[in-house]
TrEMBL record:
The lineage of its organism: Bacteria, Bacillati, Bacillota, Clostridia, Eubacteriales. This is LysR family transcriptional regulator. Residues 13-70 form the HTH lysR-type domain. Belongs to the LysR transcriptional regulatory family. It comes from the Bacteria. Signal peptide: none annotated. Pfam families: HTH_1, LysR_substrate. The keyword Transcription regulation applies. The keyword Transcription regulation applies. One of its GO terms (molecular function) is DNA-binding transcription factor activity. Keywords: DNA-binding, Transcription, Transcription regulation.
Length: 308
């Protein structure tokens, strides 16, 4: 039995020669092989002769009536077919990646912007199920660097945190409001006047985790001439909710987060008499090296922000 080194076959500079060989071997007909490869019969014949010269072996036995694979041709055929199959698979994958219909999309969000991300991902995931979506929480201090380094394709953040950079673009994502949360029974249910909080202990999400939110909350207290009695600051929302549920203090958080974290141990209170709207955006690097980013933004633009 005759064996060929697959690496020797791969060393052919022109992959078309291998395609010509496979076509002739499968059809045992030079004119049909030429038709399948959209070239002339003489081009196929020259290609086979070049392969035979390179390998130092005849691949076909030719007569006026028949074309037959030689033992060397039979030995070569499975290697050649594997090469063509692998090439076709690689070409298909690359084409999908370039069109963004396969691969991975990495979405980042900060501690406060998580609840609405699913609204934007639903349509994208349904349309492009072959794209793997990674969703990762990142620190505010890492958001700009993550975009600059293309570590993340999309980052959700508070609008006031958007970097002042010509390389970064954004799309309005959604508006939220702030709400007071308190241990169940501590405050009267329903809406609340902010000046009712002047004697309450307060726990907050730390400034390092969400500086804009922290400043918005302190500005609320200043508006009502209240010096908040901040008894603790936490680095994650779950700890804030646990502290509130335990009676350590009241807190102020985006309403969507309050609802997402809701349990029977605390109550959510709408703040009356003042606009507490905060706006979130999705951001990306304009270089947009991942084709999937463009596809995501196309689907995201279809989402009605008012319905989010």
């Amino acid at each position: 039995m005759i064996f060929f080194n697959k690496q020797l076959v791969v060393n052919f500079m022109d992959i078309n020669l291998i395609k010509y060989f496979v076509s002739v071997a499968q059809n045992l007909n030079f004119s049909e092989a030429a038709r399948q490869n959209f070239v002339s019969q003489s081009t196929v014949s020259r290609g086979i002769k070049e392969m035979e010269k390179e390998l130092g072996a005849s691949l076909f036995s030719r007569t006026k009536r028949n074309v037959v694979l030689t033992p060397e041709g039979k030995a070569l055929l499975p290697y050649a077919m594997e090469i063509i199959e692998n090439l076709n698979s690689a070409t298909f994958i690359i084409d999908k990646l370039q069109k963004g219909i396969d691969g991975k999309l990495t979405v980042g969000y900060d501690e406060t912007s998580g609840p609405y991300i699913s609204k934007y991902l639903q349509g994208f995931v349904a349309k492009y199920p072959d794209i793997t979506v990674d969703i990762k929480k990142i620190q505010v201090s890492e958001e700009i660097l993550a975009l600059d380094n293309n570590e993340y394709d999309i980052v959700f953040m508070l609008r006031d945190m958007m970097p002042d950079s010509p390389d970064i673009d954004h799309l309005e994502a959604y508006d939220d409001t702030l709400s007071v949360i308190s241990k169940k029974g501590l405050l009267a249910g329903g809406g609340i006047d902010f000046d009712q909080l002047h004697q309450q202990n307060v726990v907050l999400l730390s400034e390092a985790i969400s500086p804009i939110l922290y400043m918005e909350i302190l500005d609320l207290f200043r508006t009502y001439n209240i010096i908040p009695n901040i008894v603790n600051r936490y680095d994650d929302v779950r700890s804030v909710v646990t502290a509130v549920s335990s009676g350590i203090g009241i807190s102020i958080l985006p309403t969507s987060l309050c609802r997402a974290m809701f349990n029977s141990q605390f109550e959510i209170h709408r703040i009356k008499g003042i606009d507490t709207t905060i706006s979130y955006i999705m951001t990306w690097n304009k270089a947009m090296r991942n084709p999937g980013t463009k596809l995501f933004l196309k689907e995201a633009s279809k989402v009605n922000v008012e319905d989010v």
